[in-house]
């Protein structure tokens, strides 16, 4: 290992020397490093033109000026100028030509007006939540590149094929846990309206989180609507799910039971507590949450029933709607109480999706509304595809997964063993 440090250090020293030489040259000649006539653009022009000439050398079979090495009748035939957009802005370059017109450059392809890296920069800005207008202004301010909104839309539309492939990719046969939640965004469908986008995140047998699918809903989905959404997962290979953790979305439990009869549906406890507090005065929140914690941390379902009886006696007269919420949700809440601690942590909350949803909101907040469903899905897909640096990724591994897997195997051994 010690020997490998020297080449890296030498490379680092070379990078520093080159950078200093560029800065010194810029100072001596009174040239800015950036800007329309900046040194970086001059260097980019030189590098691109050198690369194009090297390509033509290879195509013709001889180096420029080496007439002795010439083979055949084809030869250089001057050059043509064109402007290309690069990461340092617009650069005017001379593209060499051959007499037969058979030279097809790869570095800057014929008719191409953008060099690799420019499109990636636009897509990255789009994924971070900038609108096409903001990207247009950013490119002009930073790179002095005048780019139309239409071009920016075309660049970001390149993602659509990737999105379609991602939406149709095959999935695993069994997922121990699937989390389902929703985010609301404004989409124009005749009129601008808040529309839910449902997100399903699966935990694989290896303990990896993976976004399985996203669907734009109407907000009024019943069991039939959910069957249409979740059938997508079934058609892509999901034959069994052990536990589905979700918010109390209407019709969802029925749809899950229809597609995966053995799946246990578990309401997200955090969502249930938050929904309870909507019916209560803030001055009572502390007392209510303490009593609710006794219920959802109870060692058994029987113990939870006792704590719930005390809770009803305390609050039903004052907040009957809150008590009704718990009674209506009890059937989907109680499976949680049968799980040991390792499993309870996995299905206690859909926070794994909520973390992703916070990034979705950052990317959608500035846009106002989307023109259609696909435009909204495109942005959310880019968020999934481009995880933030130095931030935990939704597709990361579950902490303590081996212990959880052992517990799952004790509870659902036959269904997991079928995988091997």
UniProtKB/TrEMBL annotation:
Pfam families: Transposase_mut (PF00872). Belongs to the transposase mutator family. Required for the transposition of the insertion element. Keywords: DNA recombination, DNA-binding, Transposable element, Transposition. The lineage of its organism: Bacteria, Bacillati, Actinomycetota, Actinomycetes, Pseudonocardiales. This is Mutator family transposase.
């Amino acid at each position: 290992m010690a020997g490998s440090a020297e080449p890296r250090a030498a490379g680092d020293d070379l990078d520093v020397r080159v950078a200093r030489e560029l800065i010194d040259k810029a100072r001596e000649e009174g040239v800015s490093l950036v800007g329309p006539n900046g040194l970086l653009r001059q260097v980019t022009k030189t590098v691109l033109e050198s690369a194009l000439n090297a390509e033509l050398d290879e195509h013709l079979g001889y180096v420029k000026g080496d007439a002795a090495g010439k083979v055949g009748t084809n030869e250089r035939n001057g050059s043509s100028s064109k402007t290309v957009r690069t990461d340092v802005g617009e650069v005017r370059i001379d593209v060499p030509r051959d007499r037969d017109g058979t030279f097809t450059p790869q570095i800057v392809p014929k008719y191409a007006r953008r060099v690799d890296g420019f499109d990636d920069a636009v897509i990255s800005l789009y994924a971070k939540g900038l609108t096409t207008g903001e990207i247009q202004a950013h490119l002009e301010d930073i790179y002095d590149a005048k780019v139309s909104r239409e071009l920016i839309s075309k660049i970001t539309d390149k993602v659509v094929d990737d999105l379609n492939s991602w939406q149709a990719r095959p999935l695993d046969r069994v997922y121990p846990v699937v989390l389902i939640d929703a985010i609301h965004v404004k989409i124009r469908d005749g009129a601008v309206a808040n529309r839910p986008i449902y997100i399903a995140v699966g935990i694989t047998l290896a303990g990896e989180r993976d976004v399985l699918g996203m669907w734009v809903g109407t907000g009024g989905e019943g069991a039939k609507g959910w069957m249409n959404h979740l059938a997508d997962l079934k058609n892509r290979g999901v034959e069994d799910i052990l536990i589905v953790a979700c918010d109390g979305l209407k019709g969802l439990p029925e749809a899950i039971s229809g597609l995966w009869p053995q799946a246990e549906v578990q309401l997200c406890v955090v969502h249930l507590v938050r929904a309870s507090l909507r019916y209560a005065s803030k001055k009572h929140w502390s007392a209510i949450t303490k009593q609710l914690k006794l219920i959802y941390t109870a060692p058994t379902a029987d113990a939870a029933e006792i704590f719930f009886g005390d809770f009803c006696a305390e609050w039903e007269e004052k907040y009957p709607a809150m008590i009704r919420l718990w009674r209506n949700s009890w059937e989907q809440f109680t499976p949680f109480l049968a799980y040991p601690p390792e499993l309870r942590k996995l299905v206690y909350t859909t926070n794994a999706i909520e973390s992703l949803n916070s990034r979705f909101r950052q990317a959608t907040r500035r846009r106002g509304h989307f023109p259609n469903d696909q435009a909204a899905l495109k942005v959310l897909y880019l968020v999934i595809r481009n995880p933030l640096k130095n931030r935990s990724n939704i597709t990361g591994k579950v902490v303590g997964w081996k212990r959880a897997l052992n517990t799952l195997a004790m509870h659902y051994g036959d269904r997991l063993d079928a995988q091997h």
